[in-house]
Design goal:
This protein has a four-stranded parallel beta sheet with strand order 2-1-3-4. The protein has a single domain, classed as 3-Layer(aba) Sandwich (Rossmann fold). With about 70 residues, it is an alpha/beta fold. The mean pLDDT is about 90. Helix 1 links the parallel strand 1 and strand 2. It has four helices and four strands; from the N terminus they run E-H-E-H-E-H-H-E.
């Protein structure tokens, strides 16, 4: 079964757990990149806080391989 992950700071992701998303906390750019690399192959969608998206950069977010990414508005 495909998973939905919300990746970013604790404050920016906590509410999504109520909707059944898997929360992956990362409070600094290094943690974001580490957690991104650890995502399993069953992840279909990753919702990112704006800070997490900035830490990954456009080269990761615009890649055709990998999960669909959605960036939350600021």
């Amino acid at each position: 079964m495909a998973e939905v992950v919300v990746l970013g700071s604790t404050a920016g992701t906590v509410g999504f757990g109520l909707a059944g998303a898997l929360l992956v906390e990362a409070d600094d750019p290094e943690q974001v990149r580490t957690q991104w690399a650890r995502l399993s192959g069953t992840v279909a969608v990753v919702v990112l806080t704006p800070q997490a998206a900035a830490a990954l950069g456009p080269e990761v977010l615009e890649a055709t391989a990998g999960p669909l990414t959605v960036v939350l508005p600021e």
